[in-house]
Amino acid sequence: MKKTIIIAVIMLLVAGTVSLDARTRKSAKSQKQSSTQVIYTGDIAKKVIGYNGPVPLNITVKGGVIENIEVLDNQESPGYLKRATAKVLPQYIGKTVAEAKTLKADIATGATYSSEAIIKNIQMGLEQVKSTTAKKKAPAKKKSAKKRR
After folding, report:
1. What is the pTM of this model?
2. pLDDT at 136 (0 to 100)
3. What are the extents of the domains in the chain?
4. Which distant-in-sequence residues (6+ apart) come within 8 Å of 121 by Cβ?
5. Residue 39 has pLDDT above 60, yes or no
6. Phi and psi of 74, rounded to 5°?
7. Residue 38 contacts by C-beta under 8 Å, 6 or more apart in sequence?
8. How far is CA 143 from the centre of its chain?
């Protein structure tokens, strides 16, 4: 009888530990995935000019992936801006920050200045993204230069 009770208690402890561990992992995973950042480029890219002036953006990054890019109030001609956003933005949406930083995006024909301003804003905005997974590398050890005789 004692052995049965001891075995039952041990089984309950093991089951509780496994359940707790699974919940902890799930919680950590959901926190990592739900880390959302919205980067406003109006301040960091003031000098980036389209055809008629700055083209500020809000870049939404969730879990290290670009989820949305919103073009904010600006002085660009609506027709050219529409052309530029239709061509440029889809190239970035769904990409990881690392992929987007190295992307050589195509520009919209006939809306070159607006396209270039959007691309530059995106590039500058992505430099502000706080990495949740990147780890700093340890500095490389310098090899001492020994003179040969």
Report:
1. 0.67
2. 42
3. 34-126
4. 41, 45, 48, 55, 56, 57
5. yes
6. -155, 180
7. 58, 59, 60, 61
8. 36
